[in-house]
Amino acid sequence: LRRESGNIRAALEFCLTEPGEAAGACDIAASIWNFWFAGFLREGYRYLLRGLDLATDPTSGRAHALWAASYLAMFATDFDRHATMLAECEQIAAGLDDDMLHARIKECEGHATLYQGDLPGAIELLEQARREFQALGNPLGEFDTLILLTACTFFLDDPRTSQFGREAFELAERHGAQSSMGYGLWSVGIAQWRTGDFAEATRSLRKSVRLFQPMK
């Protein structure tokens, strides 16, 4: 995607300037939501906002774009717009038979609830999202919720931190997902640090750093 980023931008700009094509920009920008986190967050966020301003029909495509934009909004610290977009997304999703979107909305709500400091509320939403991702056979969604659950339980000094961290790492390892294994080892490492196992925590976190180094 980095190599093709010029072509992606050209396609997005065409859709955003050609009459009647704005929904295509929403589809493109939302489908590569994970790519925008690789150093292009505000750029991707701007494309989604431009598309949403132009393609206003309450379609499935708009719902997915609203979800992606609301997720990026959290990291862009645009919290008011995040809440507004996610509420509209949920409203459209209520009329759709789209289990993946419903699971993603719960994960996004759980993530936002974590940021707002309601850790028990975040755990409840994230556990629901995890069960839904598992039922859909979606390992990325399940992994993301496990990492967030590790963070929530860590701050609550909840003993499940170790379990969630281990499950996140094992899930990533089964799929050979290197960057996810790095995050998984981070979650294992902070759980080991919390319990006072500093030697094992150091080993886990060093392995985590080594997995991330080739991706910088």
What does this structure look like?
- The chain has helices at 5-17, 22-31, 41-54, 60-75, 79-93, 99-115, 119-136, 139-155, 160-174, 178-194, 198-212.
- Helix content is 77%, strand content 0%.
- 41% of the residues are buried.
- By secondary structure, the chain is mainly alpha-helical.
- It has 11 helices and no strands.
Please specify the SSE layout and strand pairing.
Elements (H helix, E strand, L loop, with lengths): L4 H13 L4 H10 L9 H14 L5 H16 L3 H15 L5 H17 L3 H18 L2 H17 L4 H15 L3 H17 L3 H15 L4
Helix pairs in contact: 1-2, 2-3, 2-4, 3-4, 4-5, 4-6, 5-6, 6-7, 6-8, 7-8, 8-9, 8-10, 9-10, 10-11
The Rg value, from CA coordinates, equals: 18 Å
Shape: globular
| N-to-C CA distance | 15 Å
By DSSP, the count of extended strands is 0
* Helix proportion range: over 70%
What's a quick, concise take on this entry?
The chain is mainly α and 216 residues long. It has helices spanning 5-17, 22-31, 41-54, 60-75, 79-93, 99-115, 119-136, 139-155, 160-174, 178-194, 198-212.
Q: What attributes characterize this protein structure?
A:
11 helices; 216 residues; mainly alpha; 77% helix
